[in-house]
Amino acid sequence: MKAAVIYENGDPGVLRYEEVPDAECPDGCVVVDAEAISIEGGDLLARATGQLPAVPHIVGYLSAGTVSEVAAGVEGRAVGDRVVALNAGGSHAARRAVPAAMTWPIPAGLDAGRAACVPVAFGTAYECLFTAGNLAEGQTVLIHAGAGGVGMAAIQLAKRAGARVLATASDDSRLEQLKPFGMDVGINYKDDDFVEKVMADTNGRGADVVLDSIAGKNLTRSIQSLSYGGRAITVGVSGRDNEKLDPVTLWRSNSSLHGVYFPSSLDREHERVHAQVQEILETVARGELRVVIDRVFALEQAAQAHRYVLSRRAFGRVLLRP
Ligand SMILES: NC(=O)c1ccc[n+]([C@@H]2O[C@H](COP(=O)([O-])OP(=O)(O)OC[C@H]3O[C@@H](n4cnc5c(N)ncnc54)[C@H](OP(=O)(O)O)[C@@H]3O)[C@@H](O)[C@H]2O)c1
Q1: DSSP secondary structure letters along 245-269
Q2: For labelling alongside 134, which of 52, 82, 186, 207 has CA 20 to 30 A away?
Q3: pLDDT at 242
């Protein structure tokens, strides 16, 4: 089968389109023939840094398509089922084997491309806002990187829960595009200080929850924008800035800081989190939550596609098609 593989970590140029051995299907697994591969923020990190278990290595979390093989010990999945599949690697390929428990049936009416974008972005956003953040109706949330995959999911989920939604992005046109998703106030962090904007919007009270996928100095500022007893959720390190957090920052408003790592949630609380993602897939299929696809590249253009995501010009997800 064809795959976009890497032999070393590095910039998108390390991705090579090659013939690799077909995926084997161990007990408990299914093989999924990919129709669409979502390029996730985490895929860029996994390409750029981290240990490679073996080479050639196929990066990528999420793909969606049709089950073509079912191994012993699998219940509830059959050849021909349309599913979304998640694993630590292996998505940038025409085919992959994944544990059956790491697949979700694609509801009728939902195409594979949009389905592929759901589990990590929406699952992570849900865990941040509600499981870690206890966001409730009438509260205020600040969502960083609102125009990213996790950000757009979080804006919609927070709005449906009845929260006031503030979001940041690097330019005004992206913020304008976020309004129909439920963003109440957009903050262009290049022009404005987001702490001041949050305080102005909340009459000096601060946000109840901040979803921070940037880290570094941004995380310190996120905590400074919290209300008394507010919760900052750290979920990503997109800013690649190594400033360390001074714990005293949390004292001012008796704030708390929570980490969320979606694979841990799915591993440790599998039944709840798997069911949550299935419910979100069904909500997307009904048209009540939106997934935006910015562009689709052929799998052999994986390097170009990663470069395009890094350029931060995309509004919504970028897909690969085998
Ligand atoms: N912990 C977990 O379980 C988990 C799960 C999913 C994702 N994540 C992490 O969460 C982050 C967001 O993921 P995603 O899939 O939403 O990513 P994405 O769709 O690629 O969006 C990332 C957004 O971050 C913003 N950004 C701000 N500073 C940036 C910088 N220095 N470099 C690049 N982008 C920057 C960009 O928007 P602007 O240009 O508008 O600022 C960009 O659109 C990533 O760091 C990812 O690794 C973590």
Answers
A1: PPGGGGTTTT-EEEE--HHHHHHHT
A2: 186
A3: 87
